[in-house]
Design brief:
Number of strands: 8
Largest sheet: 8 strands, parallel, barrel
CATH topology: TIM Barrel
Structural class: alpha/beta
Strand order of the largest sheet: 1-2-3-4-5-6-7-8
Helix content: 40-55%
Distance between the termini: 45 Å
Number of helices: 12
Length: about 300
């Protein structure tokens, strides 16, 4: 089974003024990201507001992203659902529409036991024909996919990676040791990227990369080069205010969409009931963006 590695940007789902998905704009965003050197993209992740979309809209997003990627970058698709059967249904639909792999969040309303999680992920892994990444995000899902669970499914050929979003930096070493590196660990916490790469994470499911993909790719690659660790640290310090804004302000989708619109890309509205940024929030975000020398799609400095 093909390995997953590198910087995968979890793309937003642009919504136009009629509350429809802007598939043309979504395609434009994906093509731009591919041109900036990212290693892959993720559709229907948390930043893509997957939980707010119906089945028809999910299909639109998958087809738009896969079509725009045109084989230049792999496309992972979020397929998590409340039941094992529905997750497998979502997975097969994503694969049929051309997904390169899938991202699987555990059930988040009913809180499963570890034994139930193992049974859930094993069934999904056995149904998959493309690489599968488990998504551990206990702050959102209220379910912690522990190293014990990961060890119990790491023997499956299709389960190749884990997006680690627990906020516990010790988890990376523990997962690597307990699974003997059978699973690739991806950083899933924006302001723990540098630390995660130093500890051996070989990928980043990245939100900031929607607007600063080049810097995020540089951070990942420089951190993996021992001779460039100091350069990577300087870049990380520059990025940290933005990474922390995205991680802690609880405005991730509206913030990224606001910046994308300012850059001449496709942001649009957030799904309801999320509110757009207020005037002071826009000013705060733009001040951070100015420090990153953020540019629009034509190369002009944002301001």
């Amino acid at each position: 089974m093909e390995a997953l590695e590198g910087v995968y940007v979890v793309v937003v789902t642009p919504i136009d003024g009629t509350q429809r998905i802007d598939t043309a704009g979504l395609g434009k965003n994906v093509r731009w990201l591919a041109s900036q050197g990212v290693d892959g993209v993720v559709a229907l992740g948390s930043t893509g507001e997957f939980a707010s979309l119906n089945d028809s809209e999910r299909a639109e997003v998958i087809e738009a992203v896969v079509g725009a990627s045109d084989g230049q970058v792999p496309v992972l698709v979020g397929v998590g659902a409340e039941t094992t059967e529905r997750t497998i249904q979502n997975l097969r639909d994503a694969e049929r529409r051309g997904a390169s792999g899938t991202l699987v969040l555990p059930p988040w309303y009913y809180t499963p036991s570890e034994k139930e999680l193992v049974r859930h992920f094993r069934a999904i892994g056995e149904a998959a024909s493309t690489p599968l990444m488990i998504y551990n995000n206990p702050f959102t899902s209220k379910v912690d996919v522990t190293p014990d669970v990961l060890c119990s499914v790491a023997d499956l050929e299709t389960i190749v990676a884990v997006k680690e979003s627990s906020g516990n930096i010790r988890r990376i070493a523990e997962i690597r040791m307990r699974t003997e590196d059978r699973l690739t660990v991806f950083c899933g916490w924006e302001d723990m990227a540098y630390e995660s790469f130093v500890l051996g994470a070989r990928g980043w499911i990245c939100v900031a990369g929607n607007v600063v993909p080049g810097a995020c790719v540089d951070l990942y690659r420089e951190t993996r080069d021992l001779e460039k660790l100091d350069d990577a640290w300087r870049l990380y310090r520059k990025l940290l205010p933005f990474l922390r804004y995205l991680e802690y302000k609880n405005k991730t989708a509206p913030a990224i969409k606001f910046l994308l619109d300012r850059m001449g890309l496709a942001g649009g509205q957030a799904t309801s009931p999320k509110a757009p940024l207020g005037e002071h929030e826009e000013e705060e975000l733009l001040a951070i963006a100015m420090e990153l020398d953020l540019r629009d799609s034509e190369g002009a400095r944002l301001g």
